[in-house]
Amino acid sequence: MRGMSLFQRRYRSGERQELENRICQLELEKQEAQEAVTELKRQCELKSAYLSQISHEIRTQIDAINGLTKIMAEAAIDHPVVADNMQKISYACQAVQNVIRDVLDMTTVEVNQIKIRTEEFDLYELVVSIGEMYTQLCAQKQIRFVLSVDERIKKPVIGDPLRVSQILNNLLSNALKYTSENGTIELSAMPGKIKERNIYVRFFIRDTGCGIKKEQLEQIFTPHIQRSGKSESPMPGAGIGLPVTSRLVHLMKGAVEVESVYGEGSTFTVSLPFQRVETLHETESSGEEKETAQTVDFHGHRIMLVDDTVFNRDIVEELLRQTGLAVVCARDGRQAVELFTESEPDTYDLILMDIQMPVMNGYDALRAIRRSDHPQAKQIPVLAMTANAFAEDISESFAVGMTDHLTKPIHAEELYQILAKYMNEK
Predict the structure, then answer these.
(1) Which residue from 262, 258, 145 is spatially nearest to 210, judged by alpha carbons?
(2) Distance in angstroms (rounded) separating the CA atoms of residues 77 and 378
(3) Distance between CA atoms of 274 and 252, rounded to whole angstroms?
(4) Is the separation of the CB atoms in 161 and 124 below 8 Å?
(5) Which of 3, 26, 208, 278 is the one with CA 20 to 30 A from 414?
(6) Which residues are CB-contacts of 93 (< 8 A; sequence separation ≥ 6)?
(7) What secondary structure does DSSP assign to 350-371, as a single string?
(8) What's the CA gap between 43 and 39, in Å, rounded?
(9) How far from chain centre, in Å, is Cα 203?
(10) Residue 98 is inside which H or E element, if any?
């Protein structure tokens, strides 16, 4: 009995030791897993920071190209061939912007960082403006473009106009890419069901292009799955537009479907919910044409333009001077603060502020301006004018006190429109 008892004690001791060893092993594996997660997060942050920097550099250069194109187009108004070439350059810039945007959005999709904004906007006008752009693009490729927008959506809604535009642009550029000469592309929008305060709007993008094989239909919303073959489209894709589109649609609590017959064409159907605006009102800009240097007059106003890149500063300054504005330039945030704090009251009506600058960045400059004793310190509109285009960049701009956020590349019409808004408020 004594021997049996000793055997049992040794067996139990060995079992306990094995259990303790297993616990130590599990704790070690847990620690290694936590370290792996920490490293993965660090790599994601580095990747995001790197892409943000790359985005800033590319957008800065595209901004310069867009600006020069706009200036040359204005100067070449009596030279149709030159003006036409300038327009083609503008379309090429738009194509590059679309690719950059898709790459950045695919990255933010991977880490679930895409943010959906909510604001009141004119959905009818948005769809019409997109249709007008593709009418021109299709004409260059001798493709018939048909736009059909139901007038029942001629009411303001609440949603994310930037993402709606991105979804439609992705699908239309894809249709343009795979539709040959003498083909047809159609964009239509109509109201669907109404549920409580929401209205569902259905968008149809149809084309008579090459279509999609049945076995590929389930893969088209997977990143980097793209048909082989060359395309003459002025708006090439990177194989990620459709995955981004699918993700955006689902983030907006909508649905996207595709039907296609190989060799005959495809139809994409997107259904998106929008909140109805209870008290309808017409905005001052409703029905008006886009602002141009000829339609705005800012004589008698002076603004400060802050940008460390001489090339970009010169281009934006020229665009501003075409409207009659007096422009004072600063090369960095510190000089901007000095110019503002040493100025007489009402010297400046507005400040356009770059963000990434040497000596003092735009955020620090804004904080210094707001903290100063200048009579306009708290009221003067300060607009971020930057290539920082991520959703978190825009949020940060407003968080530090920017009045508004302009993302480079800067389009002249957008610049004039936002300036008119704040000039009219004075």
Answers:
(1) 262
(2) 42
(3) 9
(4) no
(5) 278
(6) 62, 65, 66, 69, 409
(7) EEEE-SS-SSS-HHHHHHHHHH
(8) 6
(9) 20
(10) helix 80-110
